[in-house]
Amino acid sequence: MSVLDIFCVNRIFVAINLHYNYKFNFMKLVASSFCALAALFVACSTPNKSATTDYTQYVNPFIGTDFTGNTYPGAQVPFGMVQLSPDNGLPGWDRIAGYYYPDSTIAGFSHTHLSGTGAGDLYDISFMPVTLPYKEAEEPLGIHSKFSHDNESAYAGYYQVLLTDYNINVELTATERCGVQRYTFPKAESAIILNLSKAMNWDATQDSHIEVVDSVTIQGYRYSDGWARNQKIYFRTRFSRPFDKMTIDTTAIVKEGKQIGTGYIARFDYPTSEGEQITLVTAISGTSMEGAAKNLQAEAPNNDFDTYLAQAKDMWNKELAKIQIETTNEDDKVVFYTALYHSMLAPTIYNDVDGAYYGPDKQVHQADGWTNYSTFSLWDTYRAAHPLFTYTQPERTNDMIKSFLAFYEQNGRLPVWNFYGSETDMMIGYHAVPVIVDAYLKGIGDFDAEKALEACVATANLDHYRGIGLYKEKGYIPYNIKDEYNTENWSLSKTLEYTFDDFCIAEMAKKMGKEDIAKEFYTRAGYYKNVYNPATSFMQPRDDKGNFIANFKADEYTPHICESNGWQYFWSAQHDIKGLIDLVGGKERFEQKLDSMFTFHPTDKDELPIFSTGMIGQYAHGNEPSHHVSYLFNAVNQPAKTQKYVAEIMHNLYTNTPAGLCGNEDCGQMSAWYVFSAMGFYPVNPVSGMYELGTPLFPKAELHLANGNTFTVIAKGVSRENIYIQSVKLNGQPYDKSYITHEQIMSGATLELEMGSTPGTAWY
Hints:
By secondary structure, this protein is an alpha+beta fold. Among the domains are: 3-52, no CATH class; 56-318, Beta-galactosidase, Chain A, domain 5 (Distorted Sandwich), CATH 2.70.98; 576-764, GH92 mannosidase fold. The strands form eleven sheets. An eight-stranded antiparallel beta sheet has the order 7-8-9-10-17-14-13-12. A six-stranded mixed beta sheet has the order 18-31-32-36-33-34. Helix 6 crosses helix 19 (669-679) and helix 13 (491-511) runs antiparallel to helix 14. The termini are far apart. Mean pLDDT is 92; it is low at 1-50.
């Protein structure tokens, strides 16, 4: 046995000892750990780095579970339909994802969650193991247990907690469509409770059902209404041991004085011995109980928790290994791989193993040869998450666009913010468009480009939808006209978001030779200039007569600007930064305005809204409209300022702590910004194929591409102090651009940067 083998075995036993930090029968410990021990021993004996590195150990799912991140710590595989995670049992904005780190109670482990959205929905199919008599509080908490973070752990694909009140250890893992729970009980009269009546935050049960299939299997459904309307989740659960007794309790669900459904709660009783383990495997489906049964049989035909955990780890390691970094800073490594992990929690798979899925027309459809996806937070994720997928997930990107086109066929327009077969219409714009166009321009996939362009144009011409008709007529959306189609206002933001999407349509039409369409949408792409007020040098709301709104203050938060203020939305012409520079009077004036963005700080008396977090002056990294702004100094020959602010954001606003995200994770966008930026570049205009250089975080980063090439960034001398680029080489030759291109990345180029502690003169 080599020294390396001895070292690895020693680390394995240390890890096992730490993992089982509760009272446990030693022989059961050895048995349950043997397979993992053998697998890790083989891995440690293999010299190949990508095969031996367990990247899951660098993922801390608790990052973002405190402050405003709104993430969940539970178990999921990449883009999995199941997000099996603990719920604290209490409602509130802080508990949108079901779990809030400062809490001390757990009231169930449910199979569906949203990652950092700021909207409280899902929490479907919630199980809770207990010993009798169990602890129960008034609703909404109900049956629950205390827990301590000292007896809680998680990594990619795994979650564990000791329920203090019952001395029950809970472990969670998952497949794509199944959640796997292993409960280790004390000697007691024990029970497992399935509560389909439980409702939290925006989510409310409308109807439910539980039925017995055999001595170890149940199935049923939960229909609910929430952020997404008319959600339908079907399930089938298999227990590893027959339940001694099953008790059903039902409650009438009443709406407007009439019963609309039934809430089911089931209790499964077991006398348990010390250290006895019971495993539950639950498959979910959006189509039927039969669909759930198929998913269960295909993905989890037995009750071997360790097998499914090993599979989940393998799936995560495959994805996380696509970007390899070198650093001696363990916290930076954890923050990076956790960010990469968070970027792959959504969108989520949304079809059964046979391709069946529930569509927005409330019918069951078939995905033939492709995977249907849901949970698209497009106002956020078009900026960096989807551009990242074009490198790390090109096949999934193709399927996501096919999902958009199916949604268009079934709903008459592309999705805005959809999940579980429902359009929430949350946020604004028609940002499926840049995702489609970016993939098309990069030559990704085999989706129908003609149909894709048709869908983009049709969606952009829905005159009755959210002011689009007014936008087309006047070249902007007036702030003083509200009707049934334009109820939430946000007139300034809508105008700016539409102009970017229209630019994307024009670019796709141009590439396809559709000159008439390109001309029309290039014209519309310039409409951002119509809301620029030269008197104030800000984008400003206008009325239907063309008058700018009076007494406009750019640092105020008003109904005319979506979740931002005038400072933050001014820069939302990513497609025409040169035109924006010309509007304000040239590069010098633009630089001054950028400087003010980062130095004009709110006062102590200013009451900032919940989405204005991660503030540097008026820059709000906690919200997406600001995300590209620090890179704009490159456009005015001041790259050192980009490097300064990007480094400050990475170092101070992303940390290896539960409060380590400065704003909502928003289905991966917050983390995708970090992944790109830590590698040293960022897509200011996501469809341009150009990536502005910032400042890399690591001495070396390798992006392994689907075409077999590896794009490499080497940052010599980089450190917390050495954040400034002194010189640049590309493939060994001096390089004088402030950006790199998609073609250079895909070619497997090597970008070599000399770093220093003072601003360099790499380009200017």
